[in-house]
Amino acid sequence: MKLLAVVICCLPVFAFAQQDAQALAKEKACLGCHSIDTHTMSVPSYEKIAEKYHGDPDARAYLADKIRNGGKGVWAGGGRSLMPAFLNLSQQEINLLVDWILAMKK
After folding, report:
1. 83 pairs with which residues across the strands?
2. For residues 94 and 75, is the Cβ–Cβ distance under 8 A?
3. Distance (Å, rounded) from C-alpha 30 to C-alpha 32?
């Protein structure tokens, strides 16, 4: 019963964090390249990222590093797309984005 009460109390906080993360993704132009659900060979959707890294204990750190430092050629696009570094994001903002992305696993 206590667990149910904790879950119910935390749902509004989780929803608020999700809205904050999506607003941050829009503000920082993440959604200019990535889509939540439309996957391409060179720019993965957030749902595909969540699917790929589901269950990987190192996923949070790996994805945080990709956001902070950028990358190239991780997906099957032959390395044509460059993920820019987002050095202007705080670690808290990066963690918020990573948690939001990983929560999209269907």
Report:
1. 71
2. no
3. 5
